[in-house]
Amino acid sequence: MTFSPELEARFADLMTHYPQGRHRGALIPMLMYAQDEVGAITPDLMEELAKRLGITVLQVDEVVGYYSMLHKKPQGKYHVQVCTNVACMLLGGAELYDHACEKLGLGHKQTQASGKFSLEEVECIGACSWAPAIQVNYDFHHEVTTAKLDQILEGLQ
Amino acid sequence: MKLYNPPSPLETRVVSRRFGTENSWRLDTYLATGGFEAFKKATGMTSDQIIDELKASSLRGRGGAGFPTGMKWSFVPKNVEGPKYIVVNADESEPGTCKDRLLMEHDPYQLIEGILIAAKTVGATKGWIYIRGEYRYLVDHLDNVLKEAYQRGYLGKNIAGTGFDFDLYTQIGAGAYECGEESALLESLEGKRGVPRIRPPFPAVSGAFQAPTVLNNVETFSAVPEIIRNGGKWFADLGTPKNGGTRLVCLAGHVKKPGVYEVPLGMNMMYFINEIGGGMRGGKKMKALIPGGSSCPLLRADECDIPMDYDSMAKAGTMLGSGGMMVMDEDTDMVKVALRIMRFYKHESCGWCIPCREGTTWLQKMLARIVDGNGASRDVDLIGDLAKNMLGRTFCPLGDAAAMPTISIVEKFRPEFEAYVAKNPFASSELVQVA
What we know:
By secondary structure, chain A is α+β, with helices and mostly antiparallel strands. Chain A is built from 7 helices and 5 strands, in the order ααααβααββββα.
């Protein structure tokens, strides 16, 4: 499996971060950065990282299964994450999520057939004082109303 | 760099003093405003002297547990062979908490200087800032800052000409509340599932890669430079006698001016909510609040006229936790709050120990049954009993974190649960199935 030169450089740098013989520590960062490039955690990717780190595919797989941001299926070009945890819930997070479902025609962890949008109801994303909050891919949006959500979604092409 | 909420004139800004100023995150700005004076001072002090200053400051861990920082650092064994490490907990996942974000965004060098002082104190040579994956923009931001720090000689070999060497890296997480628990974080740093370790040994003795490790929250490390620069007593005197210093409080919920504010420990909670937070929205009355992240027992409005310090909160049966304060008005459905809290803990339980894995699952089922109108009379007691049976029976505090708010909501707002149950015509029937 081949990666971009930027990702290869990142991997090479990561491998220097850990004590001698303990470079398995690079696994989670490698999965996160590779997922951004590959689009999902594919079987090929798991095999490649296992080989590079000298661990089994199962050791990679059990990690992938544990962390909520690692996914085996590709998400939409724009992954919309709506927080409904307490601070957001108090200020309309659940209603915002319902609105997003309706607007996008999607439910929790679903992706549009066109591949443009995917939706996820997420747990606290650390924007409680500026609730309700959403993330689109890695971008935060604070104090989101249904009107503001429409505007954000319509601005994404 | 812009702030997400305007500051209040009633704050006492220590760790947040550079927030919102132009280029606050650049090394030159940091150096022009007292930056690295503390590190230079620390290089002329012995480890015991540094730890004594921290003890005098009465700084306690700002991640949630509130353990005295000076004591934590003193547990790292002195005369042992092999490497020692520093790990920064920037996982910030406790619902209600959004302060470490700002410290990393606006004043990353303050964090770096705190880390360097810790490294110098215990003789560590390497460190990682473990940042939750959702904060990807901060990982990229800190990577740039670290690059500048290396180029300018504030990381790497012979730091600032002191002869001290230290390497620092970011480590991105991948979405797991449990990894904010220190031993699970260490497992994750080693490339594994974030399940907690049995303790002892504590990280100070066997932490990252089984080496002695100082592991603290972002805010804790960030408070260290000002403590060393101005003295422990100076910091302690900002608060009340036994609860020194300032801390960031993340105010959220039904208040007029939610935001992250730095206040001295011991400030009256109602004064904080009314004067800094602007009071309740829409002329509503306050019903309850979660004082320090969703793991804390809730307080009714009539219990909130107390000083915000560790001792007063303990006396009120709750804690300051991670500083995530969520205020609820009179219209809030407390049963739904209890359910939403439990849904979170059920989702985040790592599944390693049964009382937590099964406890959160069944509590969520029972709470959902009540909200759905199918609750039985016996459920209300059963929820309380089950939650109490989780306390202290798990490897890590996640089980307690799920149980504590639940117990308090059932005890303090029992009539709301009973009102739900009363609407179910079959509530007293023996035939009502358990889940």
